[in-house]
Amino acid sequence: MAEKFSVTELTVLKNGLMQGMLDANQGAELLQMFLVGRGYGVSREAAIDSVTRLEASGCPYELLQRELESLALVM
User: Fold this and answer.
1) Cβ density class 24-33: b for 16+ within 10 Å, e for less
2) How far is the C-alpha of 4 from the C-alpha of 40, rounded, in Å?
3) pTM of this prediction exceeds 0.90
4) Which one of 22, 23, 27, 54 has the fewest CB atoms closer than 10 angstroms to its CB?
5) 45 is a domain residue
6) Taking a C-beta distance cutoff of 8 angstroms, is the pair 74, 3 a contact?
7) Beta partners for residue 74, in sequence order
8) Would you say residue 1 lies in a domain?
9) Distance in angstroms (rounded) separating the CA atoms of residues 47 and 53
């Protein structure tokens, strides 16, 4: 899959993830809602792992895009 999300979508998601008030479970829920809202399924455990990687790296757009692409399960 090579889904490309718009810069606007990624910016809104990144801002939500980087608020600093979210724990890994809340961040995973945000990723899940983002992907489910676009017709994809997502594993909760994989989303938690992705959030951890994103937070540790400062959440650059390229990594956010790659993480979303690896998380998204075609329904």
Assistant:
1) eeebbbbbbe
2) 13
3) no
4) 23
5) yes
6) no
7) 40
8) no
9) 10
